[in-house]
TrEMBL record:
InterPro entries: Emycin_Estase, Hydrolase/PRTase-associated, UCP036794_erythomycin. One of its GO terms (biological process) is response to antibiotic. This is Erythromycin esterase family protein. It comes from Cohnella rhizosphaerae.
Length: 423
């Protein structure tokens, strides 16, 4: 055993306490509850316990600490339907599965699953009977919804007419020749001067901050129009940048998520506090990984740079189990085996201490957990267990997160069946 590995193992053993669920994690709730931004991660987009424990922790932050909304690594249009559902809008659905049918684009299981449905149903009950300004929202802050967001803007402005509708039509007309093919748009923008940047900037300018002067009943719809325009602007930048530089397109995406999050905070008022659900690779500080060597930033880093100790990041990990993922982008979802973690990795060391669930509170962590990188598994929507070795991110644990939840054995989440989503 290498010296650093032995020292890391000893430090982990000293900091680990039994984890019996977020419902009983008093110290974690108290500490995260002091923050303005509670960032709650996941080590995959397809593990049931990550979603379930994240939901339980969020419930406590909402009920006991007064957090105002949940912002997730999802698209604005589909998440906004779920937001309307949890706030009691019958047109969005009478059960969560009806609202979740709008998550139809691959990887649909990431949000259209029973774990999210259960949280959405809880949130609807929690919001029932409350004044509009007191209801807790559910929003998407990602940027992949270029065409869906354009359609939502046109639909909304079509009810109003005027110069704003004309600006939206100009932006839509600019994108239309590319047939909703993101790569085709990126190539055209980079090599043929056929970009739509000017059109989307003008559209966002026209829709920005209109919610501030809107009638109370229209405020959130005006916000939705602005956030859809922001998603169009972010997506245009992302797809144009992606052709040239993967690292920079990553940065465009995470900077967009922070911009969307800050607009949501402005909408909810100066005292508002936010819960953020996203993968560990987004919420854990990038400077504590090898991402920084590639010139990459992420949500956790950007928020810490702006808000310091008002940010509290909780990471997740597992030793083994099953997960929902696809073998390649766009391939069918399947339940895959997650093999035992690689020797010497964070997950293997925590399992080696004892094969049980653990919580690590890292505020006063020892130097070895701040300075010695250890491999930490990350599973995306694309996964192949046969190439497991490439899924580990060198991580200075206590610099990346403020707390870490280790679940020794986990199982795949439950995607909503097609008939549940469509009926």
């Amino acid at each position: 055993m290498r010296k650093n590995e032995f020292e890391t193992l000893q430090a982990l053993e000293r900091h680990a306490t039994p984890f019996t669920g977020a419902a009983y994690a008093e110290a974690l709730v108290d500490r995260a509850g002091e923050a303005r931004f509670a960032l709650i991660g996941e080590a995959s987009h397809g593990t049931s316990a990550f979603y379930a424990e994240r939901a339980e922790l969020s419930k406590r932050l909402i009920v006991e600490k007064g957090f105002k909304f949940v912002a997730v690594e999802g698209d604005w249009p589909s998440c906004y339907v779920l937001n309307r559902y949890v706030k009691g809008d019958e047109a969005a659905g009478t059960i969560a599965a009806e609202a979740l049918r709008h998550f139809a684009r691959w990887p649909s299981w990431m949000w259209a699953n029973r774990e999210v449905a259960a949280f959405a149903d809880w949130l609807r009950v929690f919001n029932d009977g409350k004044a509009a300004e007191d209801k807790v929202g559910f929003y998407g802050i990602d940027l992949y919804s270029l065409w869906e967001s354009m359609e939502e803007i046109l639909k909304y402005l079509g009810q109003k007419d005027g110069a704003d509708l004309q600006a939206a039509r100009r932006a839509f007309a600019c994108f239309e020749p590319h047939g909703q093919e993101a790569q085709q748009y990126g190539l055209a923008a980079n090599f043929y001067g056929e970009g739509c940047e000017d059109e989307v900037v003008e559209l966002l300018r026209k829709l920005q901050d209109r919610w501030r002067t809107a009638d109370p009943g229209d405020r959130e719809e005006e916000l939705a129009a602005e956030l859809n325009a922001l998603a169009v602007k972010g997506a245009e930048d992302y797809y144009r940048t992606m052709i040239r530089n993967d690292a920079q397109s990553w940065n465009v995406r995470d900077r967009h998520m922070v911009a969307a999050l800050e607009r949501l905070l402005a909408f909810h008022g100066p005292a508002a506090r936010a819960i953020v659900w996203a993968h560990n690779t987004h919420i854990g500080d990038a400077r504590a990984t090898d991402m920084s060597e590639e010139g990459m930033v992420n949500v956790g880093q950007l928020l810490r740079e702006s808000y310091g100790t008002e940010v509290y990041a909780v990471g997740f990990g597992t030793y083994e189990g099953t997960v929902i993922a696809g073998r390649a982008w766009g391939r069918p979802q399947e339940a895959m085996k997650v093999p035992p973690a690689q020797p010497g990795s964070l997950e293997e060391l925590l399992h080696r201490i004892e094969p049980s669930d653990k919580l690590l509170m890292l505020d006063d962590a020892e130097q070895v957990l701040r300075e010695a990188p250890v491999g930490h598994r990350a599973i995306g929507v694309v996964y192949d267990p046969e190439f497991e070795r490439g899924n580990y991110v060198p991580t200075k644990l206590a610099e990346r997160y403020d707390a870490f939840i280790f679940l020794d054995r986990t199982t795949a989440l439950t995607p909503l069946a097609v008939e549940e989503v469509l009926n």
